[in-house]
Design brief:
Strand content: 15-25%
Number of domains: 3
CATH class of the largest domain: Alpha Beta
Largest sheet: 7 strands, antiparallel
Number of strands: 14
Structural class: alpha+beta
Helix content: 25-40%
Oligomer: single chain
Distance between the termini: 127 Å
Order of helices and strands: HEHHEEHEEEEHHEHEEHEEHEEH
C-alpha cells in the first residue's frame, strides 16, 4: 500500500509536536559546574543563586581572609527546592590551584578524608558532603535527602573534570607508618594556622607569611601526640626559624614533652607523651629531598635510565656528540675541496706558489 505525500507530511508534523515538549524540557549540558535542568527530578526549582568574583565580595564571605590566603578566585552557590520539602545547597569555590582546595577541605571537614570518587578527595557527613575536584572545593548540604547529595556530587565533579591532583608536597612528608595521614590538616598561611591549628606548647604557633604548615595525629604503642610540619621557602630560612625558636627545643619540665627537628626546608615539631627514642623515630621518618625538573620532563621517556643516567639527558648528550662529529666531517671535507681546487687551478693555468708569497723587502732602501 502506497502512502500519499500528504499523509507522510501529516505524520512528520505529528511526531514533531509529540517530541517537542521533551526537547524543550531536557537540557543535556548545563552552564558551569551545576547540574543541568531536569537532570535530577528531586530538584524542583532554584531558590537562590550567587556568583562572586570581585576581591571585596570574596573577602566578605565567612572566613573570607582565610579563603583569600588559600587563593580563592571565584565563589558560586545555588540553593534548590527539593521535591517533598527541604532544600539542597551547592557551593563551588575555585582556587588558584589544587592546594587551596585541599587545604580548605582538610580544615572544614569534620570526618577523616578519603580518596574519591566523587572528586579527588571527599569527606562525607550526615548532612553534608565536601570534596575537592581539581582546583575546586565543593560543599553540598541537604538534610535527610538520602543519596541525592552524593549523586549530585558525582555530576558536579564530572562537570569540573578530573585533572591530575595530588596531595600537597608538605602533606606527603607526614610519615604514614607512625601518623594518620587521613587526619592531616593543611594550612597555606599563618591566618589559617592561627584560626584552625592546634596550639604548640599551649601557645599559638607563629609562622612567616610565606610558610605553610600541616598537622596530623600520631598514635603508636609508644605514645600519642600531634606532629606539626612547617615548610619554609629555603633551607636558610628553615635554619633561621629553627634556631630562633628556643621553645621548640625539648623542655623536660613540660608535660607533654616537646621535640623538634629540622631537615632541608622542613621543621618538624612533635608534641605528646613520647619517650625520646620514640620521638626520634617519628621525626627521623621525615625525609627531605630536592626535586629538580628538567624542561623536557614531558617527553615519553620520562623515568627511564641507562647506567643510572636518565634517558632524556643521555639522548641530549648523544645528539650533541653526533652534531659535533658532523661539523668536524664537514670542516674536513671543505678543507679537502679547497685544497683540491687550488691544486687544480695551478695545474690548469700553470700558476706557481711564488704568487702566494709576499716579500716585505725590509733590508732594501
Amino acid at each position: 500500500m502506497r502512502l500519499s505525500t500528504l499523509t507522510i507530511f501529516r505524520a512528520g508534523i505529528f511526531c514533531l509536536i509529540a517530541v517537542w515538549p521533551l526537547c524543550a524540557q531536557t537540557q543535556l549540558v548545563g552552564t558551569g559546574p551545576f547540574p543541568a535542568e531536569m537532570e535530577f527530578k528531586e530538584l524542583e526549582a532554584i531558590q537562590k543563586e550567587r556568583d562572586l568574583k570581585a576581591p571585596d565580595e570574596l573577602s566578605g564571605l565567612e572566613q573570607g581572609a582565610i579563603l583569600i590566603e588559600a587563593g580563592l578566585q571565584r565563589y558560586s552557590e545555588r540553593i534548590y527546592q527539593i521535591a517533598g520539602g527541604g532544600r539542597l545547597s551547592i557551593e563551588v569555590l575555585a582556587f588558584a590551584d589544587s592546594r587551596g582546595a585541599y587545604s580548605l577541605l582538610s580544615l572544614f571537614a569534620r570526618t577523616p578524608l578519603a580518596k574519591g570518587p566523587p572528586g579527588d578527595f571527599v569527606s562525607a557527613e550526615s548532612d553534608a558532603l565536601l570534596m575537592s575536584a581539581g582546583n575546586c572545593l565543593v560543599r553540598i548540604r541537604a538534610a535527610s535527602a538520602g543519596d541525592l547529595p552524593r549523586r549530585v556530587a558525582v555530576s558536579v565533579a564530572n562537570r569540573i573534570g578530573r585533572p591530575e591532583s595530588k596531595l600537597p608536597t608538605l602533606v606527603g612528608h607526614v610519615p604514614t607508618e607512625r601518623c594518620d595521614p587521613s587526619t592531616a590538616r593543611y594550612f597555606m598561611g599563618p591566618k589559617a594556622l592561627g584560626f584552625f591549628g592546634l596550639p604548640v606548647a599551649r601557645a599559638p604557633l607563629l609562622i612567616p607569611s610565606d610558610a605553610q604548615a600541616a598537622q596530623a595525629s600520631c598514635a603508636t604503642q609508644e605514645g600519642k601526640g600531634v606532629l606539626t610540619l612547617i615548610g619554609l621557602p629555603t633551607i636558610e630560612l628553615a635554619e633561621e626559624y629553627f634556631d630562633a625558636g628556643a621553645i621548640l627545643n625539648r623542655d623536660p619540665s613540660r608535660d607533654p614533652s616537646l621535640y623538634s627537628r629540622q631537615t632541608g626546608t622542613l621543621v618538624g615539631i612533635l608534641e605528646g607523651n613520647f619517650a625520646p627514642e620514640a620521638a626520634d623515630k617519628t621525626l627521623g621518618a621525615i625525609q627531605f629531598s630536592y626535586s629538580i625538573k628538567w624542561i623536557f620532563d614531558r617527553s615519553s621517556g620520562q623515568g627511564r635510565t641507562i647506567w643510572g643516567v636518565p634517558v632524556r639527558i643521555l639522548g641530549t648528550v648523544v645528539r650533541s656528540l653526533v652534531f659535533t662529529a658532523l661539523l668536524c666531517l664537514v670542516s674536513i671535507a671543505a678543507g679537502f675541496l679547497i685544497a683540491g681546487g687550488r691544486m687544480y687551478v695551478r695545474k690548469r693555468w700553470g700558476r706557481s706558489d711564488d704568487g702566494d708569497i709576499i716579500r716585505l723587502k725590509i733590508d732594501e732602501n
